[in-house]
Amino acid sequence: MTHWGGTGRYVEGERVFAPPAGTFDADWAAALARERLGAAAPPQEDLVAAAGTAWRALRAGADEGSLAPLLQREHRLTAEAASAVLRSVRDYVAAYGAAPA
Hints:
Elements: H1 26-37, H2 44-59, H3 64-75, H4 79-96
Helix pairs in contact: 1-2, 1-4, 2-3, 2-4, 3-4
């Protein structure tokens, strides 16, 4: 295969199977939550926004126990959806080395 343009690390149209290690991708974390929630999942954009909120709060040193109520309040998620988002963010961080601090 011939490489055309770019840095050589990624070419437009190339299939990407995971985000770069050490980075946070709210869309990726939201997709994990959506998969876990199934038919009960809220819209994708709500999950993406909630994952971003959870990530920023964790980076700021928030207590994880306060995050589910925060996500429920700010994003109008059910307790189940808020819990799924938090689990997905934690799992994403563990899998891709995107430590919050």
